[in-house]
């Protein structure tokens, strides 16, 4: 029988459909709760999928993660708390839109562009997985080093306000990454003989602290002051989305492509994709000054980007068994467990399973729109809960989520420390986002720098010897020079104006 | 103070329980376990150790009639999870999967824990290292590669597979020493595990990867890499075209990454016997063999005494290799 037909038969089985629907609701819930993340959703599904057939097992993971990455946008807009790390890049922007009375438009844009971005990612996964994986495979530590540099450069664009404070935040993040076992020499650093510190600083626990707990603290401080609260508007979330599409279609396309690409690169997932896309949107916008005031442009690009990265990450995972992000790192284990060993043979040995996964991917992105709409509606009801009850409830979920990251109290301690630190930083005008970016990319930067230097026997020029590395390096240096030049120019002009 | 008194209470509880066991042996046998058991895993969800833990957990669950929860305690090159197993209450409700790293971490000065801090229950698995090269590499077999390594100046060739001083690094060192070369004749490029190392091999970043063959499988199947040999006494039936070092080079060097089940040291005898018996039935179960074969993982069995002797040998061998390479500290 034709494998595609078999695949349809496998997917449109009542019990499989039920699993997908259940996983979708589960993903929506986990994503919409600040503190609970998509990675955690996948990890929670592993013991459940252990006893399932391959198609429902993978279907559950695909659906839950796709939903969670979108649903993270909802609390970002309503509470300024990203539901998952992937929404952190534009949580501020979304929240500001909501304060301007554009909550409906923001959520409509998020759900529609998440679904469309997801479909673009699946499109590339289905049509050019082998050739895209081929490209990702050519990246060695030299190329990754430059990519990490480019990623860190985004910190300049995402931090609003004082660039000096942005740098302080970035360097703080890079310093925190040094805690734990040195990735090159295997020597413990700043661990003070503490076993937990040897595992380093778990960045998801940090993000839960820096974004959700700090916001809870802020909410607790002015609990009785009104005006901070967004009055839930009950309107049509899809009104105006068409206009946004006509105006910002280029952002959507660029975001989806960038997301797929970043997802396909081993080690970088939806969260980095969102940040890079948000920075790109601002850099190439005709109205960059509107960013940070509740402007929809960056939300379109980053919202599409993080969902396309979900599918993109499956590309190297399926073709070469190399995880594209923390979710697919778990997925690969499930694939092996189900006898679908990753590799090109997975397309020839069990094609019906792979086609079934693709069909579920498309299906998940389609049902995201009605289910997302339902989730938005019900979250609006949640907002009616008095803040004195809502905030402690969210804290509860944050504690659960942080605990789950390390399966110990260490995660909770990290969350609390960075919650207070994040609150303190924001109150003093130091942006938190660059610190998180430093934390996410710091290890990639250090490890790839060290391994590259070991490989090249200490020769610096090796960073430019390989063609892709050379091009990336030249690009990075050019961007830095331009930025320095512009900075010098404004510094020269300022006294003249004053 | 608090900790001490809590331990004291616990000891009292265990003693009381033991007294109960003595009084009604038949009934007590059917009693343990009476609640869910936690199986700690020092490595992340989705990895090989996690998969092994989960299949063992699933079979134990069927056998013992209580849920077995696999909990991942990761980080610190395995120190975090191994410490959690050693320091858990020895009440029979926390056990763990321990790996070859316990024979290495204390030599590297990362922890004071050794295999002696556990009550061994059973050895379940061992995987030998392989020697993988890129598909575009000029070396067609292990002999050509060995000649090229000997001919190359020290440090010219690069190998990867895991972090600095990790098991596959020690495998490389052992092999080089067996060939009469210095431990750093081939330079080690630390990586975040076998999969990134295999990717770097395909990308042309390193010349050799010494991870196990099942870990290299996706790239081998993709035609991106070739496995030239394994460092084991016999071929692996799952990959029977890959020869041993002994066959091709006359070097009998062999080592391996192993996994076994252990409990905190103070676990009472009766409980240990119950779990070991259940583990033996799990090891003989068709599900276990099928699962391990499907992943290409090797299966070996050793009872508690055999496992303890095995770990002692492993510990000595790892210590020797690490001292030779200057990786031992403290």
From TrEMBL, chain A:
Arranged from A to Z, the UniProt key words for this protein are:
Membrane, Transmembrane, Transmembrane helix
Q: Keyword Membrane: yes or no?
A: yes
The domain of life is Bacteria
Protein's UniProt keywords contain Oxidoreductase: no
InterPro entries given in the database record: DUF112_TM (IPR002823)
**What name appears for this protein in its UniProt entry?**
C4-dicarboxylate ABC transporter permease
Task: List residues traversing the bilayer.
Answer: 7-30, 50-71, 107-132, 144-160, 167-185, 197-217, 261-281, 313-337, 353-376, 388-406, 412-442, 463-483
Domain spans labelled DUF112: 18-437
- Coiled-coil annotation reads none
Automatic annotation (TrEMBL), chain B:
UniProt lists the family membership as follows: Belongs to the UPF0065 (bug) family.
Natural source organism: Teichococcus aestuarii
> PANTHER family in the record, alphabetically?
BLR1237 PROTEIN, TRICARBOXYLATE-BINDING PROTEIN
A Pfam match: TctC
At the top level, the lineage of the source is Bacteria
Residue runs in coiled coils: none
Report the protein name in the record.
Answer: Tripartite tricarboxylate transporter substrate-binding protein
Q: Which InterPro entries match?
A: BUG, Bug_dom1, TAT_signal
